[in-house]
């Protein structure tokens, strides 16, 4: 009994340590990327940014096809061998080569389809990053299994710093869209190199079809569902880019940038640590439920006030950071902040299913959700962009219900229980956002500059949220204060 308790405490320490380093990695990466993105957006025009946005859709979907599935299977498999890592390594490199040749061949047709000649060269050059991306997926799987997140932090920090400096330098030298393209390419190559230096894993001359077969049994469902999800995540961008101008796509993508950055940072940080942890504890239903509840409450407590606050101060925020030429992204930012509000809850539910080895449920859910989403898109498409986005938000709530439904049976923690756990944070954040928005309108009418508006509004929002949380949400404040990884050994 004492050994089991000690083992649980050991895992709790490793999980908290992992959360700490994952948090640092995501905050540093997203923070550095944000800073350099602001510089680039002030230098480049909307058409140049829109061109890269189009190509990024293709690259993102290709990366998902190459990396998703097998890397998740490597982390989920109870016992892993060296031949498993090496076999997946060679397979992903082969897939990268095949997709690179495909993109190289279709690049003229992509340029013609979007009426942008620059897309031909952009697609061919940006496709190079598929190769280091394949290697990184294996390195990440190895580090994730061992809960070694410090090397990931180091790789992410230095790679994002170098690639950002390079991109700004190239933008000032007049490279236009290619400044952003080379930023992404250099980031991938430097991440691969640093992880190679920091991690002990090296590919061996081993290739076993039997290894791939066992991993494929779990991984193909994750691969297919991940591919469906990425196509779905980018379908609005594809539709906007084709039906409207690429400048409109740039506004949509930049409007998505800030809420996506905030939400995905928290989601990636938590899911990257919790999936291995959930997998280790897959037989202990009570512990899983407790951990899932704390994860969801913790996510809502941190993310909800940030996104509601962002919606409230969006106008002075955009003008101050990006200049008035990007004010067209204001409605996109507000709509998409609602879209990303529940992303951590989606991620937690899906990771719980995967940790139980229920990739069959994962795949079925993805198919059902995509059919639902396409139906909503077809219904709203004729009425314009913002009706489409409203429909997208309705679909997100329905998808959250579907994602949570299996966990009601697996660990007795369903949709309404999760909403109940988030209610206090939602209420406190909504009230805070309303006060900040009304105050912003008043300050703008009185002629206050954008800088002074933000200086006044951000502390106001923080104070309001703390006060409302003390009234409505003391339990989550206590949980947050208990998460002090610096007190843990091994940090």
Automatic annotation (TrEMBL):
InterPro entries, per the entry: Poly_Biosynth_Transport
Compartments in which it is found: Cell membrane
Keyword Ligase: no
Segments traversing the membrane: 49-66, 87-106, 126-144, 151-172, 184-201, 300-323, 329-350, 371-390, 451-472
Keyword Transcription set for record: no
Listed name of the protein: Polysaccharide biosynthesis protein
Record family assignment: Belongs to the polysaccharide synthase family.
Keywords linked to the UniProt accession: Cell membrane, Membrane, Transmembrane, Transmembrane helix
CDD domains referenced in this protein's UniProt entry, alphabetically: MATE_tuaB_like
GO cellular component terms listed in the entry, alphabetical order: plasma membrane
Membrane topology qualifier: Multi-pass membrane protein
């Amino acid at each position: 009994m004492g050994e089991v308790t000690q083992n649980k405490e050991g895992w709790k320490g490793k999980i908290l340590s992992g959360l700490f380093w994952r948090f640092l990695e995501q905050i540093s990466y997203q923070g550095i990327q944000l800073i350099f993105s602001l510089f680039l957006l002030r230098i480049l025009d909307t058409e140049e940014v829109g061109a890269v946005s189009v190509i990024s859709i293709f690259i993102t979907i290709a990366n998902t096809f190459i990396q998703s599935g097998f890397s998740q299977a490597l982390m989920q498999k109870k016992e892993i061998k060296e031949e498993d890592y090496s076999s997946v390594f060679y397979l992903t490199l082969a897939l990268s080569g095949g997709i690179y040749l495909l993109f190289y061949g279709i690049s003229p047709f992509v340029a013609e389809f979007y009426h942008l000649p620059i897309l031909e060269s952009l697609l061919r050059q940006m496709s190079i990053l598929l190769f280091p991306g394949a290697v990184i997926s294996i390195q990440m799987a190895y580090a994730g299994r061992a809960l070694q997140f410090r090397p990931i932090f180091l790789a992410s920090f230095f790679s994002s710093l170098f690639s950002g400096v390079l991109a700004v330098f190239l933008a000032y030298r007049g490279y236009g869209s290619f400044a952003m393209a080379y930023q992404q390419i250099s980031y991938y190559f430097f991440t691969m190199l640093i992880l190679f230096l920091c991690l002990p894993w090296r590919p061996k001359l081993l290739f076993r079809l039997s290894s791939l077969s066992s991993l494929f049994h779990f991984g193909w469902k994750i691969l297919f569902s991940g591919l469906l999800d990425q196509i779905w995540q980018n379908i609005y961008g594809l539709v906007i880019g084709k039906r409207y101008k690429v400048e409109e796509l740039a506004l949509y993508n930049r409007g998505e940038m800030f809420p996506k950055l905030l939400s995905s940072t928290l989601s990636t940080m938590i899911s990257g640590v919790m999936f291995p942890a959930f997998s280790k504890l897959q037989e202990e239903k009570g512990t899983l439920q407790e951990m899932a509840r704390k994860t969801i409450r913790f996510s809502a407590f941190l993310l909800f006030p940030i996104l509601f606050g962002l919606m409230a101060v969006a106008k002075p925020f955009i003008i101050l950071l990006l200049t008035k030429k990007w004010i067209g992204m204001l409605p996109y930012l507000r709509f998409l902040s609602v879209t990303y509000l529940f992303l951590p809850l989606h991620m937690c539910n899906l990771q719980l299913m995967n940790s139980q080895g229920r990739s069959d449920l994962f795949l079925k859910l993805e198919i059902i959700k995509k059919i639902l989403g396409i139906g909503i898109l077809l219904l709203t498409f004729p009425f314009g962009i913002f009706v489409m986005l409203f429909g997208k938000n309705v679909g997100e709530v329905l998808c959250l219900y579907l994602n949570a439904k299996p966990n009601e049976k697996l660990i007795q923690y369903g949709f309404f229980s999760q909403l109940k756990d988030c209610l206090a944070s939602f209420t406190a954040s909504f009230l805070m956002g309303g006060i900040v928005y009304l105050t912003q309108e008043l300050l703008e009418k009185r002629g206050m500059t954008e800088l002074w508006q933000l200086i006044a509004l951000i502390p106001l929002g923080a104070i309001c949220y703390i006060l409302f949380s003390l009234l409505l949400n003391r339990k989550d404040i206590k949980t947050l204060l208990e998460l002090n990884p610096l007190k843990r050994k091994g940090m």
